[in-house]
Every structure is written in structure tokens, then in C-alpha cells.
């Protein structure tokens, strides 16, 4: 696949990397994953060096790593995963005995997606991983959708509504800001859980402006209000600019339903993890 193309977040045959210094732990996790996800390919690595070699050999869909590794720590590995993944967002799960402390103190950085409490066992870890590579529906979540073409909007809205998502469609960035302002003042019935915007919009403001206003003017972080940007521009510099402006992820046009819904559900799940009532 050319490097400028966005890679699918999940696959029917997900490739999961398990990094742990213990051969026994790697085997236990691998056995449970293969039972839970029959088409999974598990790549076991004993160190950061082995993991980097595996990443260079091909993309992975998710990485689990212990916090302590023979040649470094899981946080260093997480950064290597981000560097290798390019535009694809690869969840990195740190398996730790101090997971609850990490969660309570919000020790998520830009490289680590989540922490999992190893005391819960390998069966629970497999179920947890499955929630990432094969996201479950999140009925009732509200998506604020900004698209100036009514025809495109209707088709995309149907894709999302088929998965029990509530979609509020607006034609302009200004309309989106009005709704966000009303919500911030407590004047809306529904909480907006995610913003989906086309990069090209009629009027003075575009999708990048939407991202920047959400992040700067409204002060919403990526977990409080995820923003996905739909773009037909395959220029890697333009894609990077959108991500640097604060977009959580990009969705390549023409829109493919499975990819769109997967990315929406994944970002909604991450957002839920940041809420106080997190239970692993």
C-alpha cells in the first residue's frame, strides 16, 4: 500500500503484536486471542528491538506491551509504534499491575491509548483487545456531522444510523459552532459525542477551521470531543496538517462504510475511557 494512503484501522484478520519479556506470558495471551478471534495473527516479541523489526516488516492493528521490557519500557515502544504507523492509528495498550493508578492519574500520553490491569487475567485482556479491533456498537451516541452537500450527507448519515448512532447534520461550520456553543451553555438536550466534518465546506470556514475552533476556542481535548475529518486529498503534508491541528483521525473519500463506522466507534470508545466511570 502506498505510504500516502490511509490504512484501515481494523481487518477481518487483525494482526496483533504482543510484547512481553516472558515467553510464557506471550504464549498465554496468544492462545486466548486465537480462541477469541479465530482469524487473528499474533506477533510475539520479547523486546523493543524485536518489536521494531516486526513493525518494519508490516503493519499491525493493535499492540499490547508490558511496562517493563528487557531493553527499555512500554512507553518507548509506544512511540516507535506511532512512528511506524504513519497515518494509521494503532491502539497501544500497556498491560500493567498499576493500571488503576495510571487511569486515576490520567497518565495517557499521545502514544499510549490505554492501560489494562494485568491482575484481571488473560481472558479479560482478550475481551478488552476485541473491543478495539472489532468495536461494539455504541447506540445513542450523538455525531455532529458537517457537510455542505445534502446528497452526500444523506448517504453518509444513513451509514451511521444503521449502527444506531444519532446524527445531527449541519451544512456549515458556523452552524456547527452554534450547536457547540449551545451545548457548552447547557441549552441542548443531547451531548455531542463526536464531530465528523468534510474538509471542504462552502463559505469562509473549512474542516480545518472546525478542528481548530473545537480545540482552541472551545477548549475540547481529543478525548472530550473527538473530531474526524473526511478528505479526498491524498497529499501527506495536507493530511499531517489536519492531524497536527487536532483531528483525531482522517477518513479517506470516497467513503467506505466499514472504515467510517469503525473509526467513529473507535474514537467514541476512547472518549468513554476518559470519563470518570471507567471500569476495566
UniProtKB/TrEMBL annotation:
<dbReference type="InterPro" id="IPR001789">
    <property type="entry name" value="Sig_transdc_resp-reg_receiver"/>
</dbReference>
<dbReference type="InterPro" id="IPR011006">
    <property type="entry name" value="CheY-like_superfamily"/>
</dbReference>
<feature type="modified residue" description="4-aspartylphosphate">
    <location>
        <position position="198"/>
    </location>
</feature>
<protein>
    <submittedName>
        <fullName>Histidine kinase</fullName>
    </submittedName>
</protein>
<dbReference type="InterPro" id="IPR050595">
    <property type="entry name" value="Bact_response_regulator"/>
</dbReference>
<keyword id="KW-0418">Kinase</keyword>
<dbReference type="GO" id="GO:0016301">
    <property type="term" value="F:kinase activity"/>
</dbReference>
<feature type="domain" description="Response regulatory">
    <location>
        <begin position="142"/>
        <end position="268"/>
    </location>
</feature>
<feature type="domain" description="Response regulatory">
    <location>
        <begin position="15"/>
        <end position="133"/>
    </location>
</feature>
<keyword id="KW-0808">Transferase</keyword>
<dbReference type="Pfam" id="PF00072">
    <property type="entry name" value="Response_reg"/>
</dbReference>
<keyword id="KW-0597">Phosphoprotein</keyword>
<dbReference type="GO" id="GO:0000160">
    <property type="term" value="P:phosphorelay signal transduction system"/>
</dbReference>
Amino acid at each position: 500500500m502506498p505510504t500516502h494512503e490511509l490504512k484501515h484501522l481494523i481487518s477481518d484478520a487483525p494482526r496483533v503484536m504482543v510484547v512481553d519479556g516472558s515467553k510464557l506470558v506471550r504464549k498465554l495471551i496468544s492462545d486466548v486471542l486465537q480462541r477469541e478471534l479465530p482469524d487473528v495473527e499474533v506477533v510475539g516479541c520479547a523486546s523493543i528491538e524485536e518489536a521494531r523489526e516486526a513493525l518494519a516488516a508490516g503493519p499491525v492493528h493493535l499492540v499490547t506491551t508490558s511496562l517493563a521490557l528487557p531493553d527499555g519500557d512500554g512507553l518507548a515502544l509506544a512511540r516507535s509504534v506511532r512512528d511506524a504507523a504513519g497515518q494509521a492509528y494503532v491502539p497501544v495498550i500497556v498491560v500493567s499491575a498499576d493500571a488503576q493508578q495510571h487511569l486515576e492519574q490520567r497518565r495517557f500520553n499521545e502514544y499510549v491509548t490505554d492501560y489494562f490491569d494485568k491482575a484481571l487475567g488473560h481472558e479479560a485482556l482478550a475481551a478488552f483487545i476485541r473491543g478495539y479491533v472489532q468495536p461494539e456498537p455504541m447506540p445513542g451516541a450523538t455525531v455532529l456531522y458537517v457537510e455542505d452537500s445534502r446528497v452526500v450527507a444523506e448517504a453518509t448519515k444513513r451509514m451511521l444510523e444503521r449502527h444506531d448512532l444519532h446524527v445531527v447534520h449541519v451544512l456549515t461550520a458556523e452552524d456547527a459552532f452554534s450547536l457547540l456553543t449551545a451545548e457548552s451553555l447547557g441549552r441542548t438536550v443531547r451531548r455531542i459525542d463526536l464531530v465528523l466534518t468534510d474538509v471542504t465546506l462552502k463559505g469562509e470556514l473549512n474542516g480545518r477551521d472546525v478542528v481548530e475552533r473545537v480545540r482552541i476556542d472551545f477548549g475540547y481535548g481529543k478525548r472530550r470531543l473527538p473530531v474526524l475529518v473526511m478528505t479526498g486529498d491524498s497529499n501527506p503534508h495536507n493530511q499531517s496538517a489536519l492531524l497536527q491541528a487536532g483531528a483525531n483521525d482522517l477518513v479517506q473519500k470516497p467513503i467506505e462504510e466499514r472504515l467510517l463506522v469503525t473509526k467513529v466507534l473507535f474514537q467514541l470508545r476512547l472518549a468513554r475511557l476518559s470519563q470518570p466511570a471507567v471500569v476495566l
